[in-house]
Amino acid sequence: MKNKINAHNSILDLIGNTPLVRLNQITKPFKGNFFAKIEAFNPGHSSKDRIASYIIEQAEKTGILEPGNTIIETTSGNTGFSIAMVSIIKGYECVLAVSSKSSKDKIDMLRSMGAKVYVCPAHVSADDPRSYYQVAKRLHEEIKGSVYINQYFNALNILAHYKSTGPEIWEQTNGNITHLIACSGTGGTISGTARFLKEQNPNIRIIGVDAYGSVLKKFHETGEFDNDEIYPYRIEGLGKNLIPEATDFKVIDEFIKVTDEESAHTAREISCKEGIFVGYTSGAVMQAVKQLSSESEFTKNSNVVVIFPDHGSRYMSKIYNDQWMSDQGFFDSKNVEEEQAVEYVK
Ligand SMILES: Cc1ncc(COP(=O)(O)O)c(C=O)c1O
User: Fold this and answer.
1) At what angle do helices 155-163 and 188-200 cross, to 10 degrees?
2) Burial of 50 (0-12, 13-18, 19+ CB in 10 A)
3) pTM of this prediction?
4) With a 6 A CB cut-off, is 193 part of the ligand 1 pocket?
5) Ligand 1 center to 337 CA (angstroms)
6) Which of 42, 74, 75, 76, when mutated, tests ligand 1's pocket best, judged by the most ligand atoms within 8 Å of its CB?
7) How far is the CA of 95 from the centre of ligand 1 (A)?
8) What percent of the chain shows pLDDT beyond 90?
9) Three-point CA angle 156, 161, 162, nearest 5°
Protein backbone atom coordinates (compact mmCIF):
# COMPACT_ATOMS: atom_id res chain seq x y z
CA MET A 1 0.00 0.00 0.00
CA LYS A 2 3.07 2.22 -0.49
CA ASN A 3 1.36 4.38 -3.11
CA LYS A 4 -1.88 4.92 -1.27
CA ILE A 5 -2.69 8.61 -1.08
CA ASN A 6 -4.48 9.61 2.07
CA ALA A 7 -6.81 12.26 0.63
CA HIS A 8 -10.51 13.05 0.50
CA ASN A 9 -12.20 12.74 -2.88
CA SER A 10 -13.59 16.27 -2.68
CA ILE A 11 -14.28 18.98 -0.15
CA LEU A 12 -17.78 17.50 0.27
CA ASP A 13 -16.34 14.56 2.21
CA LEU A 14 -15.56 16.97 5.03
CA ILE A 15 -19.19 17.94 5.73
CA GLY A 16 -20.41 17.03 9.22
CA ASN A 17 -18.62 15.41 12.17
CA THR A 18 -17.92 18.87 13.58
CA PRO A 19 -16.21 19.09 16.98
CA LEU A 20 -17.91 19.55 20.34
CA VAL A 21 -15.82 21.89 22.49
CA ARG A 22 -16.16 22.63 26.20
CA LEU A 23 -16.75 26.31 27.04
CA ASN A 24 -14.51 27.27 29.93
CA GLN A 25 -14.55 30.99 30.62
CA ILE A 26 -17.77 32.61 29.45
CA THR A 27 -19.85 30.04 31.37
CA LYS A 28 -17.83 30.26 34.59
CA PRO A 29 -20.56 32.10 36.54
CA PHE A 30 -23.17 29.47 35.63
CA LYS A 31 -24.05 26.10 37.14
CA GLY A 32 -23.51 23.18 34.75
CA ASN A 33 -21.23 22.03 31.96
CA PHE A 34 -21.44 23.77 28.60
CA PHE A 35 -20.33 22.50 25.21
CA ALA A 36 -20.43 24.13 21.79
CA LYS A 37 -20.99 22.25 18.55
CA ILE A 38 -18.84 24.34 16.25
CA GLU A 39 -20.43 24.21 12.81
CA ALA A 40 -17.83 26.56 11.30
CA PHE A 41 -15.66 23.42 10.97
CA ASN A 42 -17.79 22.39 8.00
CA PRO A 43 -15.95 23.21 4.73
CA GLY A 44 -18.48 25.94 3.89
CA HIS A 45 -18.04 27.22 7.48
CA SER A 46 -21.65 26.72 8.59
CA SER A 47 -24.28 24.16 9.56
CA LYS A 48 -25.95 24.74 6.20
CA ASP A 49 -23.44 22.48 4.44
CA ARG A 50 -25.37 19.61 5.96
CA ILE A 51 -28.71 20.50 4.39
CA ALA A 52 -27.22 21.57 1.06
CA SER A 53 -25.43 18.26 0.54
CA TYR A 54 -28.28 16.12 1.89
CA ILE A 55 -31.11 17.81 -0.04
CA ILE A 56 -29.14 17.83 -3.30
CA GLU A 57 -28.20 14.17 -2.83
CA GLN A 58 -31.85 13.23 -2.29
CA ALA A 59 -32.91 15.21 -5.38
CA GLU A 60 -30.31 13.31 -7.41
CA LYS A 61 -31.45 9.96 -6.02
CA THR A 62 -35.08 10.62 -6.93
CA GLY A 63 -34.12 11.89 -10.40
CA ILE A 64 -35.43 15.43 -9.80
CA LEU A 65 -31.97 16.87 -10.36
CA GLU A 66 -30.02 16.15 -13.52
CA PRO A 67 -26.52 17.26 -14.60
CA GLY A 68 -26.44 20.89 -15.73
CA ASN A 69 -29.71 21.81 -13.94
CA THR A 70 -30.07 25.03 -11.97
CA ILE A 71 -30.51 25.01 -8.20
CA ILE A 72 -32.45 27.98 -6.77
CA GLU A 73 -32.72 29.06 -3.15
CA THR A 74 -33.72 31.83 -0.81
CA THR A 75 -31.06 32.36 1.78
CA SER A 76 -29.66 34.74 4.35
CA GLY A 77 -26.27 33.77 3.02
CA ASN A 78 -25.05 30.57 4.61
CA THR A 79 -27.37 28.14 2.82
CA GLY A 80 -26.57 29.85 -0.46
CA PHE A 81 -22.85 29.53 0.12
CA SER A 82 -23.21 25.83 0.91
CA ILE A 83 -25.44 25.19 -2.13
CA ALA A 84 -23.00 27.13 -4.34
CA MET A 85 -20.14 25.00 -3.00
CA VAL A 86 -21.98 21.71 -3.61
CA SER A 87 -23.11 22.95 -7.06
CA ILE A 88 -19.52 23.61 -8.12
CA ILE A 89 -18.38 20.13 -7.18
CA LYS A 90 -21.41 18.47 -8.77
CA GLY A 91 -21.73 20.66 -11.87
CA TYR A 92 -24.97 22.59 -11.30
CA GLU A 93 -25.83 26.25 -11.84
CA CYS A 94 -26.69 28.07 -8.60
CA VAL A 95 -29.11 31.03 -8.43
CA LEU A 96 -29.77 32.71 -5.07
CA ALA A 97 -32.34 35.26 -3.88
CA VAL A 98 -31.05 36.92 -0.69
CA SER A 99 -32.33 39.49 1.75
CA SER A 100 -30.89 43.01 1.64
CA LYS A 101 -30.26 42.50 5.39
CA SER A 102 -27.43 40.10 4.54
CA SER A 103 -23.96 41.54 4.99
CA LYS A 104 -22.03 42.66 1.91
CA ASP A 105 -19.34 40.14 2.82
CA LYS A 106 -21.87 37.33 2.54
CA ILE A 107 -23.17 38.50 -0.84
CA ASP A 108 -19.62 38.85 -2.19
CA MET A 109 -18.83 35.38 -0.89
CA LEU A 110 -21.81 33.88 -2.74
CA ARG A 111 -20.67 35.50 -5.96
CA SER A 112 -17.11 34.29 -5.34
CA MET A 113 -18.46 30.76 -5.07
CA GLY A 114 -19.93 31.13 -8.57
CA ALA A 115 -23.56 31.86 -7.67
CA LYS A 116 -25.84 34.35 -9.43
CA VAL A 117 -27.31 36.57 -6.69
CA TYR A 118 -30.56 38.58 -6.52
CA VAL A 119 -30.66 40.98 -3.54
CA CYS A 120 -34.26 41.58 -2.39
CA PRO A 121 -35.67 44.12 0.12
CA ALA A 122 -35.70 42.71 3.67
CA HIS A 123 -38.58 44.63 5.18
CA VAL A 124 -41.43 43.60 2.90
CA SER A 125 -43.99 40.89 3.71
CA ALA A 126 -43.35 37.32 2.58
CA ASP A 127 -46.09 37.53 -0.08
CA ASP A 128 -44.78 40.79 -1.60
CA PRO A 129 -43.52 40.07 -5.16
CA ARG A 130 -40.20 41.71 -4.20
CA SER A 131 -39.62 39.40 -1.20
CA TYR A 132 -36.89 36.83 -1.66
CA TYR A 133 -39.45 34.01 -1.41
CA GLN A 134 -41.49 35.38 -4.31
CA VAL A 135 -38.42 36.21 -6.40
CA ALA A 136 -37.14 32.63 -5.98
CA LYS A 137 -40.56 31.21 -6.91
CA ARG A 138 -40.68 33.39 -10.03
CA LEU A 139 -37.16 32.34 -11.10
CA HIS A 140 -38.09 28.69 -10.53
CA GLU A 141 -41.03 29.11 -12.91
CA GLU A 142 -38.91 30.95 -15.47
CA ILE A 143 -35.78 28.74 -15.54
CA LYS A 144 -36.42 25.40 -17.24
CA GLY A 145 -35.21 22.33 -15.35
CA SER A 146 -34.59 24.30 -12.18
CA VAL A 147 -34.91 22.90 -8.67
CA TYR A 148 -36.06 25.09 -5.77
CA ILE A 149 -34.57 23.92 -2.47
CA ASN A 150 -37.11 25.94 -0.41
CA GLN A 151 -35.38 25.32 2.93
CA TYR A 152 -38.22 26.85 5.00
CA PHE A 153 -40.77 24.38 3.64
CA ASN A 154 -38.62 21.34 2.89
CA ALA A 155 -38.94 18.38 5.27
CA LEU A 156 -35.50 17.17 4.11
CA ASN A 157 -34.03 20.16 5.99
CA ILE A 158 -35.14 18.50 9.25
CA LEU A 159 -34.05 15.05 8.05
CA ALA A 160 -30.52 16.27 7.25
CA HIS A 161 -30.01 17.18 10.91
CA TYR A 162 -31.93 14.14 12.15
CA LYS A 163 -29.44 11.97 10.30
CA SER A 164 -26.25 13.87 11.15
CA THR A 165 -26.24 16.58 13.83
CA GLY A 166 -28.48 14.63 16.23
CA PRO A 167 -26.51 11.36 16.18
CA GLU A 168 -23.20 13.24 16.36
CA ILE A 169 -24.23 15.12 19.51
CA TRP A 170 -25.66 11.96 21.10
CA GLU A 171 -22.40 10.12 20.46
CA GLN A 172 -20.14 13.02 21.47
CA THR A 173 -21.94 13.40 24.80
CA ASN A 174 -22.20 9.63 25.34
CA GLY A 175 -25.90 10.19 25.80
CA ASN A 176 -25.32 12.49 28.77
CA ILE A 177 -26.74 15.64 27.19
CA THR A 178 -29.46 17.28 29.31
CA HIS A 179 -30.16 20.45 27.26
CA LEU A 180 -29.93 21.45 23.61
CA ILE A 181 -30.04 25.17 22.88
CA ALA A 182 -30.12 26.26 19.26
CA CYS A 183 -31.25 29.18 17.15
CA SER A 184 -34.34 28.70 15.06
CA GLY A 185 -34.53 30.19 11.58
CA THR A 186 -35.92 27.61 9.18
CA GLY A 187 -36.02 25.43 12.30
CA GLY A 188 -34.27 22.57 10.50
CA THR A 189 -31.28 22.42 12.84
CA ILE A 190 -33.18 22.42 16.09
CA SER A 191 -36.05 20.24 14.87
CA GLY A 192 -33.96 17.49 13.27
CA THR A 193 -31.40 17.41 16.08
CA ALA A 194 -34.12 17.48 18.75
CA ARG A 195 -36.21 14.81 17.06
CA PHE A 196 -33.26 12.42 17.14
CA LEU A 197 -32.25 13.33 20.70
CA LYS A 198 -35.81 13.08 22.08
CA GLU A 199 -36.11 9.60 20.54
CA GLN A 200 -33.06 8.58 22.58
CA ASN A 201 -34.14 10.39 25.75
CA PRO A 202 -37.41 12.33 25.88
CA ASN A 203 -36.24 14.20 29.00
CA ILE A 204 -33.63 16.23 27.14
CA ARG A 205 -34.75 19.86 27.26
CA ILE A 206 -34.88 21.51 23.85
CA ILE A 207 -34.79 25.30 23.84
CA GLY A 208 -35.10 27.36 20.68
CA VAL A 209 -33.67 30.86 20.41
CA ASP A 210 -35.87 33.46 18.72
CA ALA A 211 -35.50 37.16 17.93
CA TYR A 212 -37.60 40.10 19.11
CA GLY A 213 -39.47 40.96 15.92
CA SER A 214 -40.18 37.29 15.07
CA VAL A 215 -43.40 35.28 15.39
CA LEU A 216 -41.96 31.89 16.43
CA LYS A 217 -42.10 32.08 20.24
CA LYS A 218 -45.68 33.34 20.42
CA PHE A 219 -46.83 30.82 17.80
CA HIS A 220 -45.25 28.00 19.81
CA GLU A 221 -46.94 29.13 23.02
CA THR A 222 -50.38 30.07 21.73
CA GLY A 223 -50.77 28.64 18.20
CA GLU A 224 -51.46 32.21 17.11
CA PHE A 225 -49.67 33.91 14.21
CA ASP A 226 -49.46 37.47 15.48
CA ASN A 227 -48.63 40.12 12.88
CA ASP A 228 -48.02 42.61 15.69
CA GLU A 229 -44.96 40.60 16.74
CA ILE A 230 -43.26 41.40 13.43
CA TYR A 231 -40.79 44.28 13.17
CA PRO A 232 -37.28 44.65 11.70
CA TYR A 233 -34.31 43.28 13.61
CA ARG A 234 -30.67 42.88 12.75
CA ILE A 235 -29.61 39.30 13.47
CA GLU A 236 -29.44 37.27 10.27
CA GLY A 237 -30.66 33.67 10.22
CA LEU A 238 -32.67 33.76 13.45
CA GLY A 239 -36.44 34.07 13.91
CA LYS A 240 -39.02 34.52 11.16
CA ASN A 241 -41.98 36.56 9.87
CA LEU A 242 -43.79 33.37 8.82
CA ILE A 243 -44.25 29.86 10.23
CA PRO A 244 -41.71 27.57 8.53
CA GLU A 245 -42.82 24.00 7.79
CA ALA A 246 -39.23 22.98 8.48
CA THR A 247 -39.86 23.69 12.17
CA ASP A 248 -41.28 20.79 14.18
CA PHE A 249 -42.75 22.77 17.08
CA LYS A 250 -43.66 19.56 18.96
CA VAL A 251 -40.04 18.64 19.72
CA ILE A 252 -39.17 22.11 21.04
CA ASP A 253 -39.97 22.62 24.73
CA GLU A 254 -39.56 26.37 24.89
CA PHE A 255 -38.49 29.41 22.91
CA ILE A 256 -36.51 32.26 24.41
CA LYS A 257 -36.04 35.67 22.82
CA VAL A 258 -32.79 37.62 22.71
CA THR A 259 -32.00 41.17 21.63
CA ASP A 260 -29.79 42.25 18.73
CA GLU A 261 -27.62 44.31 21.04
CA GLU A 262 -26.96 41.70 23.72
CA SER A 263 -26.36 38.98 21.11
CA ALA A 264 -23.79 41.16 19.34
CA HIS A 265 -21.89 41.85 22.55
CA THR A 266 -22.06 38.21 23.58
CA ALA A 267 -20.64 37.06 20.23
CA ARG A 268 -17.70 39.41 20.78
CA GLU A 269 -17.34 38.07 24.31
CA ILE A 270 -17.19 34.43 23.07
CA SER A 271 -14.37 35.31 20.71
CA CYS A 272 -12.40 37.13 23.42
CA LYS A 273 -13.00 34.65 26.23
CA GLU A 274 -13.01 31.28 24.43
CA GLY A 275 -10.84 32.00 21.39
CA ILE A 276 -13.66 30.75 19.17
CA PHE A 277 -14.45 33.23 16.41
CA VAL A 278 -18.22 32.95 16.03
CA GLY A 279 -21.06 34.50 14.03
CA TYR A 280 -23.93 36.65 15.26
CA THR A 281 -26.34 33.79 16.04
CA SER A 282 -23.71 32.05 18.16
CA GLY A 283 -23.82 35.22 20.25
CA ALA A 284 -27.60 34.85 20.34
CA VAL A 285 -27.45 31.28 21.59
CA MET A 286 -24.96 32.18 24.33
CA GLN A 287 -27.09 35.16 25.26
CA ALA A 288 -29.96 32.70 25.70
CA VAL A 289 -27.73 30.59 27.98
CA LYS A 290 -27.07 33.66 30.13
CA GLN A 291 -30.80 34.41 30.41
CA LEU A 292 -31.72 30.77 31.12
CA SER A 293 -29.02 30.56 33.73
CA SER A 294 -30.45 33.55 35.57
CA GLU A 295 -33.84 31.77 35.45
CA SER A 296 -32.18 28.74 37.19
CA GLU A 297 -32.70 26.45 34.19
CA PHE A 298 -29.45 24.58 34.88
CA THR A 299 -28.04 22.59 37.82
CA LYS A 300 -24.45 21.59 38.44
CA ASN A 301 -25.21 18.28 36.68
CA SER A 302 -26.56 19.85 33.51
CA ASN A 303 -24.72 19.03 30.29
CA VAL A 304 -25.76 21.79 27.97
CA VAL A 305 -25.00 21.66 24.25
CA VAL A 306 -25.25 24.88 22.26
CA ILE A 307 -24.92 25.04 18.49
CA PHE A 308 -22.64 27.71 17.05
CA PRO A 309 -23.94 27.84 13.45
CA ASP A 310 -21.22 29.79 11.63
CA HIS A 311 -17.92 31.68 11.65
CA GLY A 312 -17.16 35.23 12.78
CA SER A 313 -15.35 36.13 9.57
CA ARG A 314 -18.77 36.52 7.91
CA TYR A 315 -19.55 39.50 10.15
CA MET A 316 -16.49 41.72 9.80
CA SER A 317 -18.58 44.61 8.50
CA LYS A 318 -21.19 44.09 11.26
CA ILE A 319 -20.71 42.90 14.83
CA TYR A 320 -16.91 42.94 14.61
CA ASN A 321 -16.89 46.45 13.18
CA ASP A 322 -16.88 49.14 15.89
CA GLN A 323 -18.38 51.73 13.58
CA TRP A 324 -21.32 49.45 12.75
CA MET A 325 -21.81 48.67 16.44
CA SER A 326 -21.73 52.37 17.22
CA ASP A 327 -24.15 53.20 14.38
CA GLN A 328 -26.64 50.71 15.85
CA GLY A 329 -26.32 52.42 19.24
CA PHE A 330 -24.82 49.23 20.68
CA PHE A 331 -22.06 51.13 22.48
CA ASP A 332 -24.47 53.60 24.08
CA SER A 333 -25.30 51.70 27.24
CA LYS A 334 -22.76 49.14 28.36
CA ASN A 335 -19.68 47.14 27.43
CA VAL A 336 -17.99 50.20 25.93
CA GLU A 337 -15.11 49.83 28.34
CA GLU A 338 -14.58 46.28 27.09
CA GLU A 339 -13.89 47.32 23.51
CA GLN A 340 -10.27 46.99 22.53
CA ALA A 341 -8.47 50.05 21.24
CA VAL A 342 -6.29 50.01 18.13
CA GLU A 343 -3.09 52.00 18.20
CA TYR A 344 -1.58 53.15 14.92
CA VAL A 345 2.21 53.42 15.23
CA LYS A 346 3.60 56.04 12.87
C1 LIG B 1 -26.12 32.17 10.91
C2 LIG B 1 -27.31 31.29 11.11
N3 LIG B 1 -27.58 30.88 12.34
C4 LIG B 1 -28.65 30.11 12.59
C5 LIG B 1 -29.52 29.72 11.60
C6 LIG B 1 -30.73 28.91 11.95
O7 LIG B 1 -30.66 27.57 11.50
P8 LIG B 1 -31.97 26.87 11.00
O9 LIG B 1 -32.35 27.53 9.72
O10 LIG B 1 -31.59 25.44 10.79
O11 LIG B 1 -33.03 27.04 12.02
C12 LIG B 1 -29.26 30.13 10.28
C13 LIG B 1 -30.18 29.79 9.20
O14 LIG B 1 -30.33 30.46 8.21
C15 LIG B 1 -28.12 30.92 10.04
O16 LIG B 1 -27.81 31.35 8.79
Assistant:
1) 50
2) buried
3) 0.94
4) no
5) 31
6) 76
7) 19
8) 84
9) 85
